[in-house]
Write a structure and sequence with these properties.
alpha/beta, two-stranded antiparallel sheet, 12 helices, 35% helix, 7-stranded mixed β-sheet, elongated, 272 residues, Helicase, Ruva Protein, domain 3, single chain, Rossmann fold
């Protein structure tokens, strides 16, 4: 039976084989990777990943699509049934730490495997999912996502760029960000009204010893960008003093969009 995309889940199914191959080649999965795919849909990326992996966990919320996903992945290759593990759950409720612990217990190896995450994130929940994953960055090796191109542009933007904002700072604080290539609407069914792009995120730890409260740091960044055209002394008047802004080596008359990631980290340190 044909599965029709559900608007409430933000479903758009990837159907272009050349794009699929480009994505999988960019991910470059290795047989023993500890990999999770978010939102596998009908298995466009899942099937080629399974051909290269010993095992693949997927997170899928839509219970109606799961039997179709399993059938699609096992129809041509019955061995995929043992390799594919489906977790029917909201990704925002999935415990990545518990998953990581369970999949590293009893391995007998000294080195602990980190998780590799891939997915075609629904546009309506992309930011919450990215922020959720940031909190597990210490156990994640890398992440590859298909996102709305506008979102990817924002994530990789530099200070002074019109796309630079809260999302740019948060992701670049904790990850090396890279836009890989664009994906046109005709690569999907149904075709979305926007262009998509592939994003690579690689967690780094350059500021780990300076940020001890993720939630407080995120609140500071959100407040700083709450009124883009206003200066720091105005947007942050209920958050910090002019003296603290100056203590961070910044000018109270600067705007948030002018500050680098390192500037925001210094401001957070001055406040905390």
């Amino acid at each position: 039976m044909q599965h029709f995309a559900k608007k409430r889940f933000g479903q758009n199914f990837l159907v272009d084989n050349s794009v699929i191959h480009n994505i999988v080649d960019s991910i470059n999965p290795q047989a023993h990777d500890l990999m999770i795919e978010i939102g596998p849909g009908l298995g466009a990326i899942t099937k080629p990943l399974l051909s290269r992996l010993d095992q693949l966990n997927v997170i899928e919320l839509d219970r109606d699509i799961i039997p179709k996903l399993i059938n699609s992945c096992t129809f041509a290759n019955a061995s995929n049934k043992d390799k594919l593990i489906v977790n029917q759950i909201d990704v925002l409720k999935f415990n990545f730490k518990e998953f990581h612990t369970n999949n590293n217990s009893g391995t007998g190896t000294i080195e602990t495997k980190k998780i590799r995450v891939v997915g075609n994130l629904p546009y309506n929940i992309s930011t919450p999912v990215l922020f959720h994953l940031l909190q597990f960055r210490n156990i994640i090796h890398d992440m590859h996502f298909m996102l709305q191109k506008e979102v990817v542009d924002r994530i990789v933007s530099a200070p002074g760029n019109k796309h630079y904002g809260r999302l740019s700072v948060m992701l670049q604080t904790f990850c090396t960000t890279q836009a890989l290539f664009d994906v046109p609407p005709y690569a999907f069914n149904p075709a979305p009204k926007v262009n998509s792009a592939i994003l690579r995120l690689q967690p780094n730890h350059q500021f780990d010893n300076k940020i001890n409260d993720f939630t407080e740091y995120e609140k500071l960044i959100r407040q700083a960008f709450s009124q883009r055209r206003k200066t720091l002394k105005n947007t942050l008047k209920n958050t910090c003093t002019v003296e603290q802004i100056e203590q961070a080596g910044l000018l109270p008359t600067q705007r948030a969009e002018e500050l680098s990631v390192a500037d925001f980290v210094a401001l957070y340190k001055a406040i905390s």
